[in-house]
Predict the 3D structure of the following.
Amino acid sequence: MNKDTLAINTLKINGIAAVNKANSGHPGIVLGAATMMHTLFSRHLIFDPKNPKFINRDRFILSAGHGSALLYAQLRILGLISENDLKDFRQLGSITPGHPEYGMTPGVESTTGPLGQGIAVAVGLATAETHLRSNYKEIDHYTYVLCGDGDLQEGVAMEAMSFAGKQNLSKLIIMHDSNDIQLDTPVSNVFNENLKLRMEAIGFEYILVEKNDVESIDQALKSAKLSQKPSFIEIKTVIGEGATKEGTSEVHGAPLGEDISTVVKALNWNHDLFFLPSEVTELYNDTLFKRSSEAVSNFKESEELKEFLSDNKDLQIHVNVAKNQATRVSSGEVIKFLNNNTKNWIGGSADLSGSTKALGGNGEFNQKNRKGRNILFGVREFAMGAIANGLALHSNFKPFVSTFFVFSDYMKPAMRLASIMKLPVTYIFTHDSIFVGEDGPTHEPIEHIAMLRSLPGINFIRPADENEVIGAYELAYNSKESPTAIALTRQNIISLEETSSSKIKNGNYKLIDNSSEWTLVASGSELANAVSIAKELNLNAVSISNYKGDVNWDTSKAITIEAGSTYGLSKFGSYNIGIDSFGESGEGNLVYKHFKLDRDNLKKRIKEIIE
């Protein structure tokens, strides 16, 4: 048995043994894709386990995150995790969770599992590499993806691949574990697209590997690396190869149980199931370890790149912003400041920059201007969010993305992963309430404030005026381990003397503090009316534009005011004035008045509550 075969068999046996021991997991991909994994890692990948954060390393993303046992078996061979870690697969407190988790397992470049997002994250990584290479010539690496049929059926993958093809991200190489089987059925029951025509149509190099062996896959990877386009390599495999139920859905997501002996026999494995042969370690010492160590030694990092990668100092925003204007306009002025005073602020909008005022610096990022930091994502909100995650994962980028607040629905799964991974992505959402007006219920966010407030780990800020806008951006840019969402108005607001760019960064805060036992609590555009009424009726007023922080007022005698769902607002007050229906189409002020959020109606309602 040659060393390649032994290494592949080791991946297979160790991987399915981990699944069997956990009595949970996905053995089918372990057996079917082990050859792909070994060929990539042993013959192509630049990744030094002794320097796992080497900036010029190749990135590998397991988009088919359910195949984590295969990745963990590979990382065990590299010495990044131990035999005991592999044995603790899917156990509480282990570093080998059911799906790969960034920051938990050495060698895992991104959290994956929700299908399709791994591909989109990889597009973000490839975008980061391409942009950095234009500024720092020593940057030159590949981004590899291993995906399955399910990944390619998710819309986010196609959104992102369409973007990658348009941008000609030639350092992106996707390897498709094409086994014709998914969890419920054969792929042909739900998918009949010609992948060759699809990939070529969107600008990818398409390569078919019909024989699942090392030499064929190796040659395909060599060809892909020579292409001037992003590459898609379809590799025909057999799911659960060697198991009794190979080639069927039954082997996709259930442990092999006693059938593991069938695979052991077929592979002529005469060792403990978690055994790592010394010949396999030697093979990787002579290939991946040697190749990667040389790459690290030969890498000449410029002083400019060092400065870019090490710049983590907090930024204070000094910009004169006009008063009484829409907070989206104030936001646009702050973004210009960030463009002019930072190098790592990069992003754009989903075809709405004219409305959201969110454009990056240095011109448009495209094939003629890789230095550009204004990314035209097109109408691809979900991919935009996932690509931003890839940018943040690559190195010292502070990515931002922008769209209308109501379309955060399209981006939510990517935002969730950003929160899980603690990535400093900034989401700029405009048109934040029923003041959208004529566009009507489809464009008027109602439940979205509550939705994002419920997301663990995210900073959600709905600024009331330019002071709070500046504070929101300081919090967002200076954040090291949290994404930040900023919800901004379409309409002009009333600027307040009492708001604070510094206090809002710490959470909710009092604007008016007097002897009254009653408190008005509001955020965003509703804060001006709350403050005005509080002054007239001698009440307290609190800004929850940043809802975090302690509630240090009497909630039994507090009234919340917000142009959105009242869900969750009982935390801040016992009386909640908001909108628990969908919006209406009409001129913004009239819609606002229709829902009795104008000053006169608010004052009347507040007096009724107090009396």
Q: What stands out?
A: DSSP finds 21 helices and 16 strands in the chain.
